[in-house]
Amino acid sequence: MRFLFKTTYLQDIRLVKHGGQAFWYGLLVLALLASPWLLSEYWLAQLTFVLIYAVVGLGLMLLSGYTGLFSLGHAAFLGVGAYTEAALGNAGWPFPLSFAAAALVSAAAGVVVGLPALRVKGIYLAIATLAFGFIVVEVFARWESVTGGNAGKHLKAPSAFGWSADDDVSFYFVCLVVAVGATLAILNLLRSPTGRAFVAIRDSEVSAQSMGIHLAYYKTLSFAISAALAGVGGALYAHKLKFISPDQFDIIQSIDLVLMIVVGGIGSVHGAFLGAIFLITMPQVIALAKDVLPAVIGQAPGLQGAVYGFVLIGFVLFEPLGLYGRWLKLRTYLQIFPFYRRGMFKRQKSFLKSDRLK
Amino acid sequence: MQALQIVISGMAQGCIYGLIALGLVLIYKTTETVSFAHGELMMLGAFAGFALMTLAGWPFWLAMPMTIAVLALFGFGLERIVIRPILGQPAFSLVMLTIGIGYAARGLVTMIPAIGTETHTLPVPYKDQTWNVGGLVLNVEQMVVIAATAVLSAVLYAMFRYSKIGIAMQASSQNQLAAYYMGIPVKRLNGLVWGLAAAVAAIAGVLLAPITFVYANMGFIGLKAMPAAVVGGFGSLPGALVGGLVIGVVEALSGFYLPEGFKDVAPYVVVLIMLVVRPNGLFGEKLRKKV
Amino acid sequence: MTTAAGTPLLAVSHLGVRFGGVLAVDDVSFEVRRGEVFTLIGPNGAGKTTVFNLISRLYTPSAGSIEFDGQPLLARAPHEIAGLGIARTFQNIELFENATVLQNLLIGRHTHRRTGFVSDLAFTSKARAAEVAAREAVERVIDLLDLQHHRESLVAGLPYGVRKVVELARALCTEPKLILLDEPSSGLNVEESDDMAFWIDDMRAELGITVLMVEHDMTLVSKVSDRVLAMNQGQMLALGTPAEVQRHPGVVEAYLGAADDVSSLRRVVAEVGR
User: Fold this and answer.
1) Which fold has domain C1-85+176-247?
2) In sequence order, which ranges of B56-128 are alpha helices (DSSP H)?
3) CB of B24 within 8 A of CB of B197?
4) B76-131 tens-digit pLDDT
5) Pair A140, A249: CB distance under 8 Å
6) ipTM of the complex
7) Whether the Cβ atoms of residue A261 and residue A57 lie closer than 8 Å to each other
């Protein structure tokens, strides 16, 4: 067990709280830096996807996990970023500029969605974002001059002033830098008044207002930041696949994103990464299992969907804290062995508390 | 005349949306859960009807009630096994759970060998018939949808207004704890509500099947019931039907008069406009938390 | 705009609000002077919390006006109230359940923030210094209310009495001029109520905060209040010192009902006034 003896407030405010954390995260950083030489090309590509999805997941985690605004249409922002990057990149803009533009255009889209969303709550918001998602995908398909319509759009490798990230390794490092930057940004937000304002809005809007938090401003800000992150992820996603089409950003993708943060563990930064790992490795696991299962089950086309569904149900029923919650329980068990009690993380059973009181 | 034809066709489609929205609002009113699995329940109803009529060879008038009963039981069981354990958790968890149920149902049906991936027809007795009324050519399948919806609405209205169960459901939806104290078996009631909602979805599925055929992704049609429920005001049963009709008619008209692509997004544009103009829907009430 | 020391801190004038057909607050007027403890009493449904919600701008009145420190309040949005110097607690505790006590209190410092979201994103040295300053301010309140061992606890798991104290602490973190306490001692046992009386006195004497509270516990009311306003069914019943109001026959009748027998009424009034 570790006992922390704190002498300054900065120890609580710092991101790295103690030597153990510094050690393990340092090791992780080293491993990530060395990956191109440790992993095969295939696994490096998968890791790149994990980083990309984690960036998007961080944005969605901020919006839904920390501000409490459900978004069932987040793939739309992914698409906005992807198409912005594609259009500008192909027009010859240097990568840093087109990348920043993708973030800004997505943020603007986030504000556009966020503003009417201020007046609605809960399920209405979810349906509004769902509706927005459908409309944006249709716009992608119809606005052929910019997006190439249903035929899709090809992308060139990211390039700027002579340098080009046209091989897997250099692109991986671009994604790594972006992912680390996004994580630090989110962690900084969460330990500052802005992040606390988001949490306040999630837990009690009335209280938040009484504390001086301007609901409209912070909700819109949350939408803007999470959309910007999704747009950034989308830009990287577009470059990785080298080809994008509107149906990659439909409701299935939106639900995949939400699945990612629920399975990862809602309300935690680790959850975004764990969820991204889950999302990328799950198809591999299913593919491996296909060889083991009888042909009736293994070769059936709907297997992936069914498995995703059951996994989602399983997590909501048995592990509402997600993969990160499961990891916390495991770590606590190991840390305070043999004093771990079954009920330590148990959520109190409560009656349905109506949100609808007049 | 053409316009009227389209409106009627839109009304029929709207009735389907309305029926599914009815199930959604029923569940929401009683348990404050939004079920994203309802489209899939409709799909299961259609497949159950198909299985009974085509595979088992039952006649229509026997297969229909059986389909409804099977789905009602399924809904009841679903509530008992999957939904009840997490009652009291935040709404987001419940929504994710129903999304998971929808995914799983769709996946499982797709996995059924030979049947899951094909599109099937439902051999109803009134299939492909038309009536000629005045200058209109009316599709009997669509007429049956409208008529059945009307009848079902009347039955449900009577049930809620006059029967003990209906009043108990209303009580449970307004204050669950108080309902417990009054001796209302809230848990069993929730199961009944899910069973009822599933039965309504099954009826919608069987009514829709002759028009759109039976296939595993039918559930996505049910996704448009969400805008229908919102337009009507999520807590209102008649609102759900009205919302469905509005969405259906708007969809049909935009499919005909507007350029390609608008038909698919019409319901979603309508719902966004409604949320901006009247956030609580046509019949919803303005609700505010009391502090 | 200068205000003389004699002007009241809060002036409520002919306030009224209607919900549908119900007049929840009907022509209520009172003033709260600087540095005093002013209590609203009355049976349930009298409209006391509604008056609070009107001051917090969670509801909009259908009649009347509210002035705080000489400035009209009705033009303000709910989130501007804390910045003006008004803090409140809630009858049913509206804490941020999924955050720790420390985070709840830090959120109370929101009106004193010095950084925008961009500096927060980058966590500049200015943001870091502001964080340390906020933490120091919050620790002073924790010291005052003895919340040290609950700092890192999630609010959702805390006992009721502690949560009430956390609500009070959170309100104090905003450094208000006026604090609205909604039933501060409801649900508390005798020791906790004693602590609460002590703190209310401390707030007035040491922190210079004016207190406006709703309370049912008459012992607490008599102990700490300077003046009392009794309400019933949205209307004002009696205004004065605690002793005066408790003897008022209308107040007695509102709480205890009318007595046909005058001598029994006298007995009852004598009991209450003691």
Assistant:
1) Rossmann fold (3.40.50)
2) 60-78, 91-111
3) yes
4) 998 888 877 777 677 778 888 899 999 899 888 888 877 777 788 877 777 777 77
5) yes
6) 0.86
7) yes
C115·A193 Cβ contact <8 A: yes
Among A109, A139, A125, smallest CA distance to A228 is for A109
Cβ-nearest to C121 among A185, A197, A208: A185
How many Å apart are CA B106 and CA A197, to the nearest integer?
Answer: 40
Mutual angle of helices B60-78 and B38-50, in 10-degree steps: 140
Model pLDDT for residues B39-90, shown as the tens digit of each residue: 899 999 998 888 888 878 888 888 888 999 999 999 999 888 887 777 767 7
Any idea where the domains of chain A sit in the sequence?
40-262
Mean pLDDT for the stretch of residues A223-231: 96
* B166-201 residue pLDDT tens: 888 878 777 777 888 888 888 888 888 899 999 999
Helix (H, G, I), strand (E, B) or coil at C178: strand
pTM given for the model: 0.88
Q: Do B264 and A134 touch (CB under 8 A)?
A: yes
DSSP state for residue C232 in the 8-state scheme: E
The DSSP result for A56-111, as a single string, is HHHHHIIIIIIS----S-THHHHHHHHHHHHHHHHTT--HHHHHHHHHHHHHHHHH
Nearest to C92 by CA among C223, C214, C255: C214
Instruction: Enumerate neighbours of C (3 or more CB pairs within 8 A).
Output: A, B
**Cα–Cα distance for residue pair B273/B254, rounded to 1 Å:** 15
Task: Name the amino acid, one letter, at B251.
Answer: E
Calculate how close chain C gets to A21, using CA atoms only, in Å.
19
Peptide bond preceding A301: is omega within 30 degrees of 0, i.e. cis? no
**Hey, where are the domains in chain B?**
2-277
Q: How far apart are CA A309 and CA B98, in angstroms?
A: 9
pLDDT tens per residue, range C141-175: 999 999 999 998 889 889 999 999 999 999 999 99
Rounded CA-CA distance A201/C151 in Å is 21
C94 touches chain B (CB under 8 A): yes
Distance CA C180, CA C172 (A): 11
C-alpha count within 13 angstroms, C-beta hemisphere, residue A255: 19
- The yes-or-no verdict on residue B159 having pLDDT over 90 is no
Check CB contact of A199 with chain B, cutoff 8 Å: no
* C-alpha to C-alpha distance for A55 and A229, rounded to whole angstroms: 6
Judge contact between A113 and A132, C-beta under 8 A. yes
Q: Where in chain C is the domain with CATH 3.40.50.300?
A: 1-85+176-247
CA atoms of B262 and B256, how far apart (whole Å): 10
Q: Which residue of chain A is at minimal alpha-carbon distance from B92?
A: A70
Partner-chain residue, chosen from A10, A193, A208, that has the shortest CB–CB distance to C113 = A193
- Within 8 A of C92 by CB-CB distance, chain B residues are 291
Q: Which fold has domain B2-277?
A: ABC transporter involved in vitamin B12 uptake, BtuC (1.10.3470)
Q: Which stretches of chain C drop beneath a pLDDT of 70?
A: 1-5, 257-265, 274
C-alpha distance from C70 to closest chain A C-alpha (Å): 20
Count CB atoms within 10 A of the CB of residue C95.
22
Q: What is the pLDDT of residues A61-108, one digit of tens each?
A: 999 989 988 899 999 999 999 999 998 888 888 888 999 999 999 999
Task: Give the strand pairing for C227-232 and C37-41.
Answer: parallel
Residue A219 is encoded by which pair of tokens? 């909700």
Predicted local distance difference test score (pLDDT) of residue B285 = 64
